[in-house]
Design goal:
198 residues; alpha+beta; Rossmann fold; five-stranded mixed sheet; globular
Length: 198
């Protein structure tokens, strides 16, 4: 992703952009050195969210802003609920991370978000729900290929035999077909748009 970012910045003539890979939980940032901190579906994976948000807040100037997207609960997200329900009859599903553990739905609870941000010293916290279709791929086979590349799919299919795997994939095809349209396969998604200020 960093290589693509460099490439796009160069192509668009952005000379004032810098890209680096670091752990925001432990990275030492310049105090009050930034105006805005943004994240698109990344903050749910912090091992230590209190430390991470405190570090982000310390890096923002007074009046600086935080904005991020994170998933609402799994049951409200068809893009995960539909495939899991389809394969559940044919293969054992892995344990999902419990509330508070790092994972895609660790910030599904708005109260937890509010608490984490307030404890980090952030104010004017706003949490707005966003729902809408998410394009998963060009067609059913394309989407199945995408799902097969996810770590959760490796976990599910690793313990299933050849026959169970074939049945699970066929069930997934059947579940995805009704979601195929002119613009590809779309499934519902539900996220929180969170904003706050220093």
């Amino acid at each position: 992703m960093l290589a693509v970012a460099h490439q796009r910045a160069g192509r668009n003539g952005a000379r004032n952009a810098r890209f680096e890979q670091a752990d925001v939980q432990t990275r030492t940032f310049p105090a009050a050195g930034f105006d805005v901190a943004l994240s698109s579906f990344g903050v749910m994976f912090f091992d230590d969210p209190p430390a991470a948000f405190a570090n982000i807040a310390a890096a923002l100037r007074p009046g600086g802003r935080v904005a991020f997207l994170c998933w609402q609960e799994a049951a409200r997200n068809e893009f995960l609920a539909v495939p899991l329900a389809a394969v559940a009859e044919h293969a054992a599903l892995p344990e999902m991370p419990s509330t508070g553990e790092p994972g895609p739905f660790s910030l599904a609870d708005p109260q937890r978000i509010r608490s984490l941000l307030a404890n980090a010293g952030l104010a004017d916290i706003s949490i707005n729900g966003l729902q809408g279709p998410m394009r998963m791929g060009a067609d059913v086979q394309d989407v199945i290929g995408y799902y097969q590349g996810l770590p959760i799919a490796w976990q599910i299919l690793a313990g299933a035999g050849e026959q169970a795997t074939a049945a699970a994939l066929e069930a997934l095809r059947d579940a995805l077909r009704p979601h195929q349209g002119d613009e590809g396969v779309t499934l519902g998604s539900a996220a929180w748009l969170v904003t706050a200020q220093c």
